[in-house]
Amino acid sequence: MSRPGIQPPRSLLRRVGRAVAEYAMIRDGDHILLGVSGGKDSLSLLAVLRHLQTYAPVRFTLGIVTVDPQIPGFDPGPLKAYYDRLGVTWFYEQHPILEQARERMDGDSFCAYCARMKRGIMYGTCRREGYGVLALAQHLDDLAESLLMSLFHGGQLRTMKARYLNDKGNVRVIRPLV
Question: If you average pLDDT over residues 10-39, what whole number do you get?
Fold first, then answer.
């Protein structure tokens, strides 16, 4: 069965396949919601997951969520036609995160605040729309950066996990690009 979209490089497919297997990220029957910003990392993961839907021994459904933090210049609208062509359901969530950050942020960086808020919005979309898995496109470089930030700013040896359950225990979060 041929699928519209971009064919990911084999080297990326092998690495993602290895991570998915090693961390037991995708299970048969999973409903996966992929957080897509429109950047190269999330669009690459979209291409990989679409490919895996065709060839993986497990069957899963895939949807996309984009969180618009309402910052000037952010416009994922042009990608809607691409998602339609792929036949993937797209959820577009608009939230005034920048405005909220100005009012509520206390001693945190805007990036950390925005990431936390966006993840919470994506968890809510997963629950509302019946997706049990949230896929994020952070990769090994992002995990290394997270480790260094944690060491230098928090004095702790920690980074993002490849797979975990959210605090409420109702959404499994996976990072196949690790």
Answer: 93
In the sheet with 89-94, reading across from the earlier edge strand, the strands are 89-94, 61-68, 31-35, 133-135, 172-174, 163-165
pLDDT of residue 97 exceeding 60? yes
The pair of structure tokens assigned to 153 is: 């700013």
> Are the beta carbons of 45 and 10 closer than 8 angstroms?
no
Interatomic CA distance for residues 19 and 57, integer angstroms: 15
Query: Which of 78-92, 104-118, 140-154 bottoms out in mean pLDDT, i.e. has the lowest?
Result: 140-154
Q: What is the pLDDT of residues 118-151, one digit of tens each?
A: 999 999 999 999 999 999 987 666 666 765 776 6
CA atoms lying within 13 Å on the CB side of residue 52: 28
Domains of the chain, start order: 18-140+157-171 (3.40.50.620)
Q: Which helix (H) or strand (E) holds 164?
A: strand 163-165
Token pair for residue 51?
């490919």
- 3-state SS class at 174: strand
